[in-house]
Amino acid sequence: MGATSCDGRAPADGRRVYARGRPHRQGRQTTLAQQSSAPRPAGIDPRGPRFAAAITAVLILLGTFLALLGPAVRTGTTLAERIADPGFLVLLAVDLLFVWGFASPHTAPWGVLFRTAVRPRLAPPSELEDPRPPRFAQIVGFVVVTIGIVLHVVGVPWALPVAGAAAFIAAFLNAVFAFCLGCQIYLLLLRAGLIRTRGGALVGA
């Protein structure tokens, strides 16, 4: 849910940081040192996640707007009304796209669209970036939207638009300012030893 690092900043010498999830301090815990020396997956064009975030932000904004007009903000609605809510259907589609994004990022539709229609028209990136933080950001987006969807289905008013608004803010920050909130969460969890990486995949601590 950046063109340089997770927060969009580049080092003073103009080189982009590739391994955003790599610890930078000496003397860290042994597990983190092992992670930093482990093989890293192939880098990705940093403009791809921002392109996907822009499309995602538009879809989430549409779903949130529709949710504000429907039964998602009312009490006493039936299950059929809540499921037929256009805002619910749009955000459900976004949620499924989040799953696609972290389960099979190479076949996710926005990534394919970027590689086939957008990237050929752009100059090559000066540096590639670690795909693991953006992939983790997809998981964060999925969790946020799923919470709103589940609460909406069981009849909690305002749960759907609130979750949609939170997901929109994250996608908007990534698309416009190259600030990946999910990537920042990834770094915090990695440095705390709560997640580990193994062959490019994310595993629990």
UniProtKB/TrEMBL annotation:
Disordered, as annotated region: 20-45
Entry annotated with the keyword Transmembrane: yes
Top-level taxonomic group: Bacteria
Keywords in alphabetical order: Membrane, Transmembrane, Transmembrane helix
DUF4395 domain residues: 44-191
TM segment ranges: 51-69, 89-118, 139-160, 166-189
Residue ranges with Polar residues bias: 28-38
Stated name of the protein: DUF4395 domain-containing protein
Phylogenetic lineage: Bacteria, Bacillati, Actinomycetota, Actinomycetes, Micrococcales
